[in-house]
Design a protein that fits this description.
The protein is of the alpha/beta class. Helix content is 33%, strand content 23%. The strands form 2 sheets. Strands 3-2-1-4-5 form a 5-stranded mixed beta sheet, sandwiched between helices. The protein is globular and about 50 Å long.
Amino acid sequence: MTEDPYALKLYIDGNAYNNPGAAGGYACVAEYPEAWNRAPEVIFSKGFYETTNNRMELQACIHALKHVADQGRSIGLVRVQIITDSQYVYDGQRMAPQWRSNGWKNASGRPVENPDLWKKFLSVRLRIKVRTEIMWRKGRKKPILNAVDRAAKDAGKMPTKPDRGFRSGKIGTSRISGGASSL
């Protein structure tokens, strides 16, 4: 997929300092269609006390989708491209319906990370009435990607509330074959 000069582009990013478990934030910078003659702007950013990188990346995507669902048609949008540097979000968008039908377990039968947010993602995506694509781009290759990265990090430096879905002490895959370790 290529970037469309006629589409609203929503660049999203999320971060967590000392991942997992420290403060983090997410943000979105809008780049408007060329014909609108409007400068890019931060349309949202939010910080949390304890979280993870993946939770913040997914929260950014969910809030970008909410923005499109709530305002897309009323501001005359025909197409929206959400651009993320998160492989987790990009790959997960296609897998989420399968995870849901599998009881929020992956193909190996293990619980999916952040099912609370993936449920929100699927719910919000159903409300969208404008053609919307989620695209992956390597981070910090364009000035606007640097701007959204900076906005997410700034939000993480000023957390306003706890991330209610964050769970400390989660079990992760061991580096030793056949086991799991506590993070």
